[in-house]
Write a structure and sequence with these properties.
Layout (H helix, E strand, L loop, with lengths): L4 E4 L2 E5 L8 H8 L5 E3 L6 H19 L2 E4 L3 E5 L2 E4 L3 E3 L5 E4 L15 H10 L5
Parallel strand pairs: 2-3, 3-4
Antiparallel strand pairs: 1-2, 4-7, 5-6, 7-8
Protein name: CN hydrolase domain-containing protein
InterPro entries: C-N_Hydrolase, C-N_Hydrolase_sf
Organism: Tulasnella calospora MUT 4182
Length: 129
């Protein structure tokens, strides 16, 4: 069983990989242990990234009533190997609050993490986390 990473400035983190994003039970296990945010470092392929990346991230944030931090490799790494990119941060309501552009160059995006807002979302629509 995967354990959360406690005591960070943005709450308790649940660390996963981009493939884990497709399996909600893994996220639910971490959320039931007190996570306030889930992380998904990614190397999604362009085809599946365009179809699924943002939808799955927003879904995890909404279902989990948590922040989602999704770093993402972007661009062509070598001939024949490309990654979709689109790193983003999603809030507990499912809103994308920060997003990197798709230049293929290293970037960082930032967003304010409001743990009082997270508590409000969870209080107003209790899901048992």
């Amino acid at each position: 069983s995967v354990e959360p990473v406690p005591n960070t400035p943005v709450g308790t983190l649940g660390l996963q990989t981009c493939f884990d994003l497709r399996f909600s039970d893994a996220a639910y296990g971490l959320l039931s242990k007190g996570c306030t945010a889930l992380t998904y470092p990614s190397a999604f392929a362009p085809h599946t990234g365009a179809a699924h990346w943002e939808a799955l991230l927003r879904g995890r944030a909404i279902e989990g009533q948590c922040y989602v931090f999704a770093s993402a490799q972007a661009g062509e790494h070598y001939p024949g190997r490309k990654s979709y990119g689109h790193a983003m941060i999603v809030d507990p309501w499912g809103t994308v609050v920060a997003r990197c552009s798709q230049t293929g160059k290293p970037e960082v995006c930032f967003a304010e993490v409001d743990l009082e807002y997270l508590a409000k979302v969870r209080r107003e629509m209790p899901m048992g986390w």
